[in-house]
Every structure is written in C-alpha cells, then in structure tokens.
Design goal:
about 475 residues, alpha+beta, Outer membrane efflux proteins (OEP), 2 domains, 10 helices, 4 strands
Length: about 475
C-alpha cells in the first residue's frame, strides 16, 4: 500500500509538471492580438525662428538639470534644493509612481496561477425514515465532515490579453515617471520666478524710498521758499501731493514682497511665514546671463517630460486596444484541486482520505450583442485622442520656446533703452532742481523730472526682473530641471 501511494503521488507530480511546462510554453509562444506600439513621428522645424545667432562666448553645454546655477545666486540654489526635497506636489507625484508600479504588479500577476487554500467543518443530521407510519419515525443520523485542501487556476494567455495589460501598465508607469519630471520642471521654474519677483519688489521698494526721500527734501525746500515769499502755495501743494503719491506705493510693494515670500514657503512645503527671516533682507535681482542655448527643436521631443508623457499615453492606449481585442477569442484555463475529506477527525489527514482533480477548460463568448466590438472601438477612439493630444503638446512646446526666445531678445533691447532713459532723467532732475533754486524755472518742471525718474527707475528694475524671468521661462520651455535617475 505504501509503495502504491508513492507511485501514485509520483505520477501526479509528473503529470502536473508536464501540464505546467506545456501551459508555460503555450503562454509564452501565444500571439499578441491588437496593434503594436510605434513611437509617433511628427515633423518639427530644423531651428528656432527667434534664436539669436551663436556667439563665441556662448556656452557649448549647459547642465539643464540644474539650470538655475547660471544665475550665480547661492540663496536661489538653496531654495531649489529644499523645494525638490519637500514640495508636496512632488511628493504626490512620487506616490503616483508607486501606485503605478503596484498596478503593474497586479497586471503581471495575471500571467501566473492562483491558489486558494481552505478548510471547513460541517456537522449535519440526515432526516429520519419511517417504514411503517404506525410504528413511528426512526432517528436521523448525525455526521461530521472535515474538509481541507487547495484550489488552483491558471488562465492561459494564448492571445496576449494579459501581456497587453502588462504593456499598458508599463506605459502607465512611464507616464507617472514623466509626470513627476514635469512637476520638477514646473517647481524649479516657479521657485526661481517667485524668488526673482521678490528681489524685484525689494528693489522697487528701495527705489520708492529713495525717491520719497528726495521728494520730501524738495517739499521742505519749497515750503522754505514759500515762507520766504519766493514761490506760491501751489508749489507747496504740488510737492506735498507728489510725496503722498510716492509714499502710497510703498505699502503695496511691501505687501507684494511678503506674498512672494509666502509663495516660496508654500513651494517648499512649509508654512507661509517660515522664510520671512531668511528672505526679508533685500538683495539684488539674480542677473540673467547674456544668452542661453535652446538646442534644436528635435531635442525638445526627447527632453520635455510632458511630450514624453504624451508618448507614454499613446503606448498605453495602443496596448489597451489589444486587451479589448483579446476578448474576441476563447480563454483557456487549467484548474485543479487537492485536499483531504473525512467524516472522522482522527483519520482526516490520512492518505486514504485524499482527493484531487486536474484538467483544462475553455470558454468563449460567442454572442454579446456587440459589446466587445464596441469596447474595441472605444479603445481605438481613446488611442486616436492620445495621438492628437501628443501633436497638441508638441506644438504648444514649440510655441512656448519661441515665445520665450523672442521675449528674452526684445527685453534686452528694452532694458538698454531704459538704462539710457534713467541716466537722462537723473541729469534732468539735477538740472531742474538747480534751475528752480536759481529761480529760472517753475516747480512743475522739477515735479515732472522727479516723476519721470521714479517711473523709469522702477521700469528698469521691472525690465531687469523680466530678463531673468524670461530666461527661467526659456529653461522651463526646453524641459530643464530634471535628470535621469
């Protein structure tokens, strides 16, 4: 008896192993229904319309992953590094990567078998039997049933529906990775932009205070001349009005500077006022270098995370067409069960109480009122949408780069003119004050000169800030701010 048990068990194991090898070979050699993914092809220009001609001083290579180093501002460097470590949007994107990786694991599990273990105890009573109703009913039989075993199932991926699901999950995972990179690009650009705006507000506050001090001095001088009978009260009123107007600008600029600090605190994942002590002291606007290489439009397709994510979306949609198409074909499954069942606990797990079953099955939905065909058409329409979205993403990227290039180029021209205007207005203010004290001109000329100087100085600061933020926009447009991990 013992030898027969061993022989029987050996046969079962060999048969099960043979079935496993056969199923594995069939699954690996099965066909893949549905279209295969091909990277989208889109014609792009050979160069940028607004790109300045290369100069010998232009750097040949720039580390786009840390592009903010071109500003040579240690405070900005530190803010960028801290934002990358603690920004909440970035942490959410990293969690989405883990979610996509887990979803890929769920899809991949479909290639393997499933095994369920179970056990039960059942106590039952059978109904009694009466052979002669006049003699009364006999007692029923009470019995126990002990049951334990394993149930296994393995769907054979003959037509590749499961493998297409894994392919789609891989593409979704890549899209999540690119989404995190896109968040990095946006985050680093936003930190730099808010920091530059903060320094610009601080410079404008300083200019407003300097002009206010100058105008207050002019107002005192005018009042003295009025008290001496040299000018009328109109000049005094005009001077005091100019002082009040300039003073009214400062609180607004101070509020904007505080808001920039609060925005930076939020980007770093901290409470709004966390950076107040660190960033409240005024500092210069980070100067933009003369030129920034934009590369070629073809480089954009390989660099920008949103374009790479759009391509991954196409891949996932294409694979899901195959998943839907696989529903047109039969499904092959091998099922098995093994265990022990007994009515006596003491003999429950002995060899004679064993049972097992193993065998293949096939199911094929031959009619579903067009449900499967409609599902395929639905996925094909989604694939078409991702292709259109990819084209739109590429065109938007090209536009962003061209916009950034032309803005940077024209802002440089504008700043040169503003610098000349500031120099001229400073001379005008000096001359107007001299002529006024000599009685050779009226006070309105002094007011006009001071007002023009204040406007042009503030506009020059705004232009300096715009040059730096235009450079930030350019680096964002070409996909700077991330690196391969």
């Amino acid at each position: 008896m013992h030898d027969r048990r061993l022989v029987s068990a050996g046969k079962i194991r060999r048969w099960a192993m043979a079935c496993t090898i056969l199923l594995s070979a069939s699954a690996l050699g099965g066909c893949l229904v549905g279209p295969d993914f091909k990277p989208p092809q889109m014609a792009v220009p050979g160069g940028w319309i607004e790109a300045p001609p290369p100069s010998p001083a232009e750097p040949t290579a720039v580390d786009l992953s840390h592009w903010w180093t071109v500003f040579d501002d240690p405070t900005l460097f530190a803010l960028e590094e801290r934002a990358v470590r603690s920004n909440l949007d970035l942490l959410q994107a990293e969690a989405r990567i883990r979610q996509a990786r887990a979803a890929r694991g769920i899809a991949a599990s479909g290639l393997g078998p499933t095994v369920d273990a179970g056990g039960s105890f059942l106590r039952s009573r059978s109904p009694g039997r009466t052979d002669n109703w006049q003699q009364g009913e006999t007692r029923g039989v009470v019995s126990n049933t002990y049951d334990a075993g394993f149930d296994a199932g393995w769907e054979l991926d003959v037509f590749g529906g499961i493998r297409r699901s894994i392919e789609a999950a891989d593409a979704d995972l890549q899209a999540a990775v690119e989404d995190r990179r896109d968040v990095l690009v946006t985050l680093t650009a936003e930190v730099a932009r808010n920091y530059i705006e903060l320094r610009a507000f601080q410079q404008r506050i300083e200019i407003a205070r300097q002009n206010l001090a100058t105008q207050q001095h002019s107002a005192r001088l005018t009042r003295q001349r009025f008290e001496g009978g040299f000018v009328s009260g109109l000049d005094v009123a005009n001077a005091e009005a100019q002082v009040a107007t300039t003073a009214s600008v400062i609180p607004q600029l101070e509020a904007a500077a505080r808001q920039s600090i609060y925005a930076l605190g939020f980007l770093l994942g901290q409470e709004p006022a966390a950076l107040m002590a660190e960033l409240s002291p005024a500092a210069d606007i980070p100067p933009a270098p003369p030129a920034a290489p934009a590369g070629l439009p073809s480089d954009l397709l390989r660099r920008r995370p949103d374009i790479r994510r759009a391509e991954a979306d196409i891949h996932a949609a294409t694979a899901r067409v195959g998943v839907a198409t696989a529903e047109l074909f039969p499904k092959f499954t091998i099922s098995g069960a093994a265990g022990a069942r007994s009515g006596d606990f003491s003999s429950w797990l002995t060899w004679p109480q064993r049972f097992w079953s193993l065998g293949p099955s096939v199911s094929w939905r031959v009619f579903d009122t067009g449900r499967t065909r409609s599902a395929i058409e639905q996925q094909e329409a989604l694939q078409e949408q991702t292709l259109i979205a990819y084209r739109q993403t590429v065109l938007a990227a090209l536009q962003e780069v061209e916009n950034a290039l032309i803005a940077a180029a024209k802002e440089q021209e504008r700043r040169r003119s503003l610098a000349d205007a500031v120099a001229a207005n400073r001379k005008a203010v000096s001359l107007a004050k001299t002529l006024y004290t000599q009685g050779q001109t009226d006070f309105l000329n002094v007011l006009d000169a001071q007002r023009s100087l204040f406007v042009t100085e503030e506009t020059l600061v705004l232009s300096t800030s715009a040059m730096s933020t235009d450079l930030v926009a350019l680096y964002k447009a070409i996909g700077g701010g991330w690196f391969e991990e």
